[in-house]
Structures are given as structure tokens and as C-alpha cells.
Amino acid sequence: MKKWILLILAIILFGIFSIIRSCQRSSREIVNVYTDKEIEYFIGKLAKKFERNESKIQVKINNLKNISDYDIIITDEKESVKNLKKEFKSKDLFKDELVVIGRRRIENISQVANSTIAMPNYKTNIGKKSLDILAKLDNFSEISKKIEYKDDAISSLQSVDLYEVDYAFIPRKSLAYAKNSEICYRFPATMEGNKILYRIYLDMNSSDNSKNFYNFLEEEFTEKIQEKPKSEKNKAIITKDVEGKS
Q: 144 pLDDT band (50/70/90 cuts)?
């Protein structure tokens, strides 16, 4: 009998605790953040870290329809912030780099000539940079026949994971989404043509809490805090065949 009473009390206490937690969550101020799809997971990890120290704030990512409605925007796409309806201040936040992923490592980028390749379409910054790199190769005419254009970097990555293509061009921070692929080729550190610059935009009329998260992100990247590699298999091969061609 005592066990049943204790069980009922435990259920009641758990229910009360859950209601209290729910009320606390609903009373938190929401900071709405837009990020490009390929860095959503990465920025989400930083948001969770911020929330652990700021119990009155909840960061929601990519939860709105209109990009102008966000408090903070993080993107490498200049076109997406071209016609914002509010006043934003902006600055450089961090640089990422394009890598080639797949299941078979290559020693130089021209070796993709006989393989299928996925990349974002040319209207995107990542797609443009990927195609510009390949366009400098002598065998580009053959390579171009086997390129499959996707909507974004994550769709490109998924094409490799699903065995639809052999290789894909993606930003390095997108590797968190990879399941059946790894880095097959990494461009030389001296090459600039594969670098992707992400900028952060803050609504000038946003709340102090939005500004706090903005400052938090700035501090994180100023201190050069990087995510840990997903696994040993994603250690990159660095070769020199395109060095100086960026």
C-alpha cells in the first residue's frame, strides 16, 4: 500500500514540476535567429550553451517566414539581406571552407572528372565558389557533364549519403549532418577561393537580450572556439594541386 502511495506522490510531484518548468519556458523572452541551413546545427549548439546561462531567454532558429522579422541573421548570402525592411548593423562573424566529401579519397581535385558531383546551384554563394574552382581545371568540360545542382549544401550532402552521387562540395561545418560520407579532399590553406565568409546582422531596434546573444556569438568566435571533429574519419587530406589558383 505504501508503495502505491509513494508512486502516486511521485507522479503528482513530477506533474507539478513539469507544469512549473512549462510556465518558466513560456515566460522566457524569445530571440529569433535566422541562419543558413548548412550552419543551423552549429549555431544551434551555441544557442543551447547561451541558454544554459540565460534562463530567461529562449533562442529560436529559422522559426519565422520573413527574414526581415528576425532579431539576428547569420548568412553568407548577400542577396538574402539585400532588401531588409528594418535597420540592421552587421559585421564579419567567421570563415568556413569548402571541402569535398564522399567515400573514396582523392589526391587532387581533377580526379573527380569521372565521378558524379553534387553542389548547390550557381545562384548560391557556395554553388558559385564550387563551380569556379572546377572551372579552372583543364578537364572541366568533362566534369561539368556530371554535376548535379541542388537547392543547398545540405541537399548536396544528402545526395552523397544516399549514394546518389560520388562526391559533393559542402562547407566543413556541415559535416555534423553526414552519415555515410567523409572528407575526401581538402583544399590548401593558402587558397582563398574556397573560403566562405559568414556575416552577422542585428536588428538595431531589438531587445537587450538579442544584443546579449549577438555579443555572446561575437565573443565565441573572437576566442576562436571551434567545434570538435565529428570523428577521426573526417580528418582531411590536404594536397597542393590547386594552390595559387584561387
A: very high
Yes or no: say if 239 and 108 are a contact pair by the CB < 8 Å rule. Answer: yes
Alpha-carbon gap, residue 165 to 105, rounded angstroms: 14
Residue 157, classed as helix, strand or coil, is helix
Asked if 197 and 39 count as a contact pair (C-beta separation under 8 A), the reply is: no
Q: If you write DSSP's letter for every residue of 12-72 in order, what string do you get?
A: HHHHHHHHHHHHHHHTSEEEEEEE-GGGHHHHHHHHHHHHHH-TTEEEEES--S-GGG-SE
pTM flag (> 0.70): yes
Q: Is the pLDDT of residue 104 over 70?
A: yes
Which residues contact residue 119 at a Cβ distance below 8 angstroms, ignoring those fewer than 6 apart? 126, 127, 130, 131, 147, 148, 149, 150, 156, 168, 169
| 202 and 140 both lie in a single domain | no
**In this predicted model, what pLDDT tens digit does every residue of 215-246 receive, in sequence order?**
999 999 885 544 444 444 444 444 334 433 43
For residue 211, give its domain range.
28-94+197-225
